[in-house]
Write a structure and sequence with these properties.
single chain; seven-stranded antiparallel β-sheet; 7 strands; 30% helix; globular
Length: 168
């Protein structure tokens, strides 16, 4: 089965460098987990450096949990980072986070996921469901990102992104 591509784009009210810094801050990942997903963070991200790993335990359905280990790579400070599944629920998962400058105090967040469903033909049958779930997940993540950034801007924390949101 060939890879499927999913992409989500959103305008953000901060520079690309600030958005990257927010993603790199402690606790940012946890703020992006939707309330309907059961995720246990067994080994949290330690930043955004090539080779850093994250280990999650995700609930696929009631009573069924799966370990998901991902590794960061392709980090370009202030512009991009990628993560790839080393083990987990997908046949393949590679996620690129791009922060595209759109002026001094604005950027576009672009999430692009190349993925392959597991289980061959059965995975192909699940493709419409997976696509809907990815759209729902990334709509939540982009809205949560924007809300946290706007709260930090309102609190006057724009110069040190991540610090104010970590206290929340």
């Amino acid at each position: 089965m060939r890879d499927q591509i999913f992409e989500a784009r959103s305008a953000m009210p901060v520079s690309a460098e600030q958005l990257f810094a927010w993603h790199a801050s402690a606790g940012a990942f946890e703020k992006l987990i939707p309330p309907w997903q059961r995720v246990e963070l067994l080994r949290p991200p330690q930043g955004l450096r090539d080779g850093d790993r994250v280990l999650l335990r995700v609930r696929l359905c009631p009573g069924v949990w799966k370990l998901w280990e991902a590794e960061h790579f392709g980090v370009i400070e202030g512009r991009r980072f990628c993560d790839r599944q080393l083990r987990g629920p997908f046949g393949r998962w590679e996620h690129t986070h791009d922060f595209v400058p759109r002026g001094e105090h604005a950027c576009e967040l672009v999430d692009r996921v190349a993925y392959r469903a597991p289980f061959g033909v059965l995975g192909r049958l699940a493709q419409p469901f997976l696509r809907r779930e990815l759209a729902r997940l990334f709509a939540h993540r982009h809205a949560a990102t924007r809300a946290h950034l706007e709260a930090e801007l309102a609190a006057g924390a724009g110069a040190g992104f991540g610090a104010a949101s970590n206290a929340r």
